[in-house]
Amino acid sequence: MHTPNQSPIYLIALGAFALGMASYVTAGLIPMIEASFAVSVAVAAQLVTAFTLAYGLGSPIFVALTPAHRQRAGLLLALGLFVIANAASALAESFTTLMVWRAIAGIGAGVYLAMGIGASAAVSAPERRGKAIAIIMGGMASGVVLGVPLSLLIAEQMGWQAALWLVTVLGLVAFFGLLLKLPALPAATATTLGQKLAILGDGHVLVILLVSLLAAIASLGMYTFIAPLLADPAYGAVRSVTPYLWVWGIGGVLGSFLIGPVVDRIKGPVLTFAIMLILAVSLFALPLSAAFSTWLVMLPIAIWGAVGWALQVPQNNELILARQAQGDGNLAIALNESALYLGSAIGAAAGGFVLLLQMPTWTLAACAGGVAALGALLQIVNLRRLQNNRRTATDQSKQGAVSQSN
User: Fold this and answer.
1) Residues 28-67: b if buried by 16+ CB within 10 A, e if exposed
2) Which of 156, 211, 233, 380 registers the highest number of CB atoms within 10 A of its CB?
3) 265: phi then psi, degrees, rounded to nearest 5
């Protein structure tokens, strides 16, 4: 039996590694950029906003505009744009120029990840599709957990530009590797922009996106406030949250990679329900375990990181399956990425509101767990709807068979 060449998948994952670095390293570079351009922290922080807004809002538009027969070219163009934007960011001589290039980098990153996941699925056998998507998401998670600290360490020694040059070099290696190794991709079904917008009327897709949104509000939102929770004297009075962030990130890398074989064996909606349930339990357990021991709390943090990152593997796989007949799976994935970024922003804002009301810090974890539990309940509704649809389809096929026999 012929085994598809896996090298393009790992090259796409290398690009995702660079993307993960670029997405999160800017926050750590803010003090250096502030000093370099003589701007305030509040102004420098808008670099993160420019990247994430362009990523979350711009990428679905550009994915939708990519011609159906130019999927390979679109992927390479997005990665090339990402590489150029990061190099230009490192060379920027004014803060305004840097802001513009961070936004362009965000668009390239969002389009690349969406099309990269679609490409990895296209070059994989159906029974290995989940594993392929897991490799891509694992690459991005590794970029966040391993690449960001490495690039910040380099930036401390050589300046903030060095971190972006590292991202550029890794992206460039992935670009030339894919240029040589990525085969021609199957042309998607040719559709008009109006037909592509019809995806927003697909109830199954909307439920998947809503679950991703709720998961991001709970998981990424709580990630923003892990430090205030653990710094509370009632929950350990932890001075440095760094070890706990490492535990969360390592859990995310392991979850992203290990979920792949599971996705290929367990139906996506069932797996998503289980993940959302585990996410809710781990978030509820945060203050309870932290109150007992600063070591014990690492367990729910690791589980939270693992399932939070793992969720997007079955979600993206399910979106590809749901829209493969219409040929707009890449657009569905881009919308899913937008849901994640929107959810992160909502979670951060909601957590800030909780703190503004001077509520106990345990309510942060309780609210996050409640949102995850709501996502699990929504997934139960989705499972029942899918089961009813299957029964209806089975009944109709039986009726058709009876009619033909008569």
Assistant:
1) bbbebbbebeebeeeebeebbebbbbbbbebbbebbbebe
2) 211
3) -115, -30
In DSSP notation, 69-81 reads: T-HHHHHHHHHHH
Task: List the end-to-end C-alpha distance of the chain, in Å, as a whole number.
Answer: 43
Q: What is the pLDDT of residues 350-364, one digit of tens each?
A: 888 888 888 888 898
Give the number of residues written for the chain.
406
Phi-psi region of 323 (alpha: psi -120 to 50; beta: other; left: phi over 0): alpha
3-state secondary structure 232-249: CHHHCCCCCCHHHHHHHH
Q: What is the pLDDT of residues 159-174, one digit of tens each?
A: 889 999 999 999 999 9
E strand map for 209-305: none
Amino acid (1-letter code) at residue 230: L
Q: How far apart are CA 222 and CA 209, in angstroms?
A: 19
Confidence class for position 406, pLDDT limits 50, 70, 90: low
Most confident among 68-77, 303-312, 388-397 (mean pLDDT) = 303-312
pLDDT band at 32 (very low <50, low <70, confident <90, very high): confident
